Amino acid sequence: MDKLERSTSISFSQWLKSGEPWIWINGAAISISVIAVVGLIMILAVKGLGHFWPGEIMSATYQDPRSGEVSRIIGQVVEKESVPIEQLRASGLKLETDEEFLSRYLLKLGNRDVTGTDFAWYLQVQTNTVEYPQAAMALERREWGSFYGFLHQVKQADQVVATASGEELASDAAWQELQTRIERVSQLHDQIEQLEKHEIGAINAKLERLRLNERGIELDEGMSDSAVKSARAKIEEGRAQLDQEYQVLQKQLSQLYIKVSRDSITAVTMDGSSIELPIAKIVRAYQPNSLSLSGKVAIYFSKLNEFLTDDPREANTEGGIFPAIFGTVMMVILMAIMVTPFGVVAAVYLREYAKQGFVTQMVRVAVNNLAGVPSIVYGVFGLGFFIYYVGGSLDQLFFQEALPSPTFGTPGLLWASLTLALLTLPVVIVATEEGLARIPRAVREGSLALGATKAETLWRIVLPMASPAMMTGLILAVARAAGEVAPLMLVGVVKLAPSLPLDGNYPFVHLDQKFMHLGFHIYDVGFQSPNVEAARPLVYATAFLLVVVIAMLNFAAVSVRNRLREKYKALES
User: Fold this and answer.
1) For residue 404, cis peptide bond before it (omega within 30 degrees of 0)
2) What is the average per-residue pLDDT within 403-424?
3) What is the per-residue pLDDT across 246-297, written as a single tens digit (0 to 9) for each?
4) Strand runs (DSSP E) across 118-158, as ranges?
């Protein structure tokens, strides 16, 4: 028995010394991490993307447990949960039941302009005569959120052109008429947007440049009177021409607004009252209870496309997030362009040119410590140095005609990109230096022996071989920068940007403009929105989209790195 225990003890100690337990522990840790990441992504995808599915509209009668009044409710069930009966009684509800838990559901009522609220909780035991009427319609509006009810009449200039047949029918001539007029209004809104944002926006940009030129003439004391008079005459001539173009466009815009406000509908609300709604405020109308699977799929992808390509509305709780996607990608690209050369140059100097000693070692320690500095500290530094000092100096030197309104002396895309470049610089330096250290010394000596200079060896041999490590540093930098929010709140990001930092107006790329960002959008919608229940699914959807954007940027960089690694694998061996 003692021999068996001794042999078992020896075999166990040998198993520990073999290192196999650590392999199993590492494998288990990696598996748990992968499961956690995949689970998190699945939660974001289900809760976020499921928001766009056209849920059925429920109609029921409800007896208020406080007052005993019976009312009719209509809406979409968003969430269900079980609540302890004691908690409900403590809130003042009069409930006579022996059950310990009661089910309640969160109903999206819509009709905020009628009832004053979008969502409400209802107890299932107090709900009766639950139905799903085929003719119940959901309207997504440009203002006041969703509307749930029944179509009654379609009007053109206050004249009834179609009348619905009643709640028992899912579709009729009135419904088809409504869809046709919504499509017409959508096309008119596209024309209005084209006029306001592009054509009139271009005229306003040119007028602003003329104003700045005029102010520049006033500040230029070296111009002669004749030159000033000639310059002012050209400015006035250009302004008169732009004013004439503006009047033409403004007339077209007024006509479009008259056309878009022509049609309206009369709808019946949950309490049986009628309300008139302008079709100009309706984005989409559908009857989910009567839709087939293909119809629901079409509505789903239509709403998903709107989420990805449109501007936000209703305090960012509805509409799309395209400006935030565009701002995030553009900022990351600018950051990568800025951080890569500085990081590579610093790493090359530390590894190839600096004398290896105490000072160089302390610089490396400082670089490693910078990677652990909280990001908000970089934001404060960017605000003080880049914006107030550098931006203010640029305004004094090159944009005096715009003062006291700042041009670069205010938060914007350029300073946000520079701040994040500074934030991720240590990552690029460390990764590049490790890549340079892995290149065999014989490669350098062979190049020098063949007559190449040190600079030629570095440029043609060493840097290409170290390029996979540079890409690794860039991947890590992009992964960190794309998700940062705290420093951006100080150096350029805003809740809603009226225009993109890239458009058709000179100088086309507006690095001085503020921009939207997916990370800040998540913070704003999740914690600053006045309508928490409406904002919650958009937080999940935006978070999932941010993960997808970061993954796509990283996959692009990884593919480039893998090609470079395959290209220079033979030289490294």
Assistant:
1) yes
2) 92
3) 999 999 999 999 999 999 999 988 877 888 999 999 999 999 998 889 999 9
4) 119-123, 127-131, 136-141, 146-156
Contacts with 368 (C-beta within 8 Å, 6 or more apart), sequence order: 426, 430
Q: Give the pLDDT band of residue 170 (cuts 50, 70, 90).
A: very low
Q: What share of the chain is helix, strand, coil (3-state, %, to 5)?
A: 60, 15, 25
The single-letter DSSP state of residue 572 is: H
Question: Could you give the CA distance from residue 446 to residue 241 in angstroms, rounded to a whole number?
Answer: 69
Q: Among all chains, which residue has been given the structure tokens 């203010």? A: 392
Q: What is the DSSP string of 89-118?
A: HHTT-------SEEEEEEEE---HHHHS-S
Please report, for residues 13, 14, 37, 285, 383, the alpha-carbon distance to residue 23 in angstroms, rounded to integers and kept in the order given: 16, 15, 21, 58, 47
Whether 107 and 120 have beta carbons less than 8 Å apart is answered as yes
Alpha helices in 268-311 (DSSP H): 293-309
Provide the β-strand partners of residue 84.
101
Residue located via tokens 């400015």: 235
Which whole number is the average pLDDT over 6-26?
71
| pLDDT surpassing 60 at residue 126 | yes
Task: Please choose, from the candidates 59, 523, 560, the residue with its C-alpha nearest in 3D space to the C-alpha of residue 271.
Answer: 59
